[in-house]
Amino acid sequence: MKRAIALAVAVLLAACEGNPVRLGSPVEGPPPTGQSREVTAQSCGFQLLYFIPIAINTRVERAYAGIQRQVLGEYVTDVRVTEQWTYAFVGTIYCTTIDARAIRQT
After folding, report:
1. CA-CA-CA-CA torsion for 71, 74, 80, 85, nearest 10 degrees?
2. What is the sign of the dihedral through the CA atoms of 62, 67, 70 and 74?
3. 66/96 Cα distance (integer angstroms)
4. Helix, coil or strand: residue 24
5. Rounded Cα distance, 58 and 6, in Å
6. Are 60 and 94 in contact (CB under 8 A)?
7. What SS3 state is found at 31?
8. Model confidence pLDDT, tens digit, residues 72-102
9. Predicted TM-score (pTM) above 0.90
10. Are the beta carbons of 103 and 77 closer than 8 angstroms?
């Protein structure tokens, strides 16, 4: 019985794991200089009944993919990640906002 409980807990905890996301552009030599602009992307998920995750674990991945769609090969730096949550009647809404600076490589 103890093994079954331990296995059930392990399975439930494994479902709450997100993937690591590498933010910003890899540095090879000095960073580029030139015109820069701010880019922002946000992604949200929902925790139903405070227990069932719906699109929760991939929020950072989806928000950063939104940044990458906006920069189209530009150098990404000064990445800032903001988390916020809001109670809903049957759960909680979690949102991740990523702000960054995109520098056009010349």
Report:
1. 20
2. negative
3. 12
4. coil
5. 26
6. no
7. coil
8. 888 999 999 999 999 989 999 999 999 999 9
9. no
10. yes
